[in-house]
């Protein structure tokens, strides 16, 4: 992965406007862990192969970035994005890594469904 190039990511996002796409969005378990006394609270989110259509896409910030997709009835967005894969043929893959290189958030769009995991 390479550091996000904002203008190039925006161009790729724009290429998906008004098309049905599949979304994969997740935070890793513990990416928002908060210490409260002796306890750690882990929060995570995971959605995969959600079909949607959006009318506008925006990448904002100066790094880390946030990406939002404006749909007819609302928004979906990811925050804390730092890296991307510019030569990816299967769709757009963005990720956010912490200072130690650990994955905190993944945001991926594709015109075809993502592979199915083992049940």
UniProtKB/TrEMBL annotation:
Gene3D superfamilies: Hypothetical protein YojF. This is DUF1806 domain-containing protein. Pfam families: DUF1806 (PF08830). InterPro entries: DUF1806 (IPR014934), YojF_sf (IPR036492). It comes from the Bacteria.
């Amino acid at each position: 992965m390479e550091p996000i190039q904002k203008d190039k990511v925006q161009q790729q996002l724009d290429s998906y406007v008004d098309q049905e796409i599949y979304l994969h969005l997740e935070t890793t378990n513990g990416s928002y862990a908060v210490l409260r006394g002796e306890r750690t609270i882990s929060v995570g989110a995971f959605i995969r192969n959600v079909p949607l259509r959006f009318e506008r896409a925006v990448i904002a910030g100066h790094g880390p970035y946030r990406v939002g997709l404006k749909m007819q009835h609302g928004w979906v967005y990811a925050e804390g994005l730092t890296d991307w894969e510019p030569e990816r043929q299967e769709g757009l893959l963005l990720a956010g890594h912490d200072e130690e290189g650990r994955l905190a958030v993944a945001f991926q769009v594709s015109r075809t469904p993502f592979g199915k995991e083992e049940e």
